[in-house]
Amino acid sequence: MERTTAMKVLETYIVAGLTGLLFYHLHSPIPWMLGAITGMLVWKTVIKRPVAAPKALSIGGDPAIVSSLQFVRLLLVIIVVPNMLKWVFRKFPYITETPWKNRSVRN
Q1: Could you tell me which residues come within 8 angstroms of residue 62 by beta carbon, excluding any fewer than 6 positions away?
Q2: 56 CB contacts (<8 Å, ≥6 apart)?
Q3: Sequence-separated (6 or more) residues with CB below 8 Å from residue 31
Q4: CA geometry: angle at 94 spanning 88 and 98, to 5°?
Q5: What phi, psi does 65 have (nearest 5°)?
Q6: Dihedral of CA 96/99/100/103: which sign?
Q7: DSSP per-residue string spanning 2-34
Q8: CA–CA dist 95, 88 (Å, integer)
Q9: Which of 55, 64, 57, 18 is nearest to 37 (CA)?
Q10: The dihedral of CA 51, 52, 56, 57: what is its sign?
Q11: Degrees, nearest 5: CA angle 56-61-63
Q12: pLDDT tens digit string along 62-103?
């Protein structure tokens, strides 16, 4: 990936993140998705700057939508998955036990 493409992708993620944060503080439903998509569409139409989504053109999608959905996927991996795993391990503690841990040796 070229430096200019990397900077465009970083700029896209920053805009999507900031508008997602804005929608979060406005108590919007699903702010991480609505904020990111709205921010990218506004960025593309009002500011007239291109948004970068590496796979958008190959799948025939709008780069604003594809990049905001990529940002949503990144947020899910970073925020939701670790919290879900913590909940699962607290709810079902026997998942982390080894089968030989509490067994006595029979003679």
Answers
A1: 56
A2: 62, 63, 65, 66, 67
A3: 20, 21, 23, 24
A4: 125
A5: -70, -45
A6: positive
A7: -HHHHHHHHHHHHHHHHHHHHHHHTT-SSHHHH
A8: 9
A9: 64
A10: positive
A11: 50
A12: 666 667 777 777 777 777 788 888 888 888 877 766 666 555
Chain Cα centroid distance, residue 85: 17
At which residue do the structure tokens 């940002």 appear? 71
pTM for this model (two decimals):
0.50
Token output for 18:
């900031």
Find where tokens 């905001």 sit: 68
pLDDT tens digits along 27-40: 888 887 888 888 88
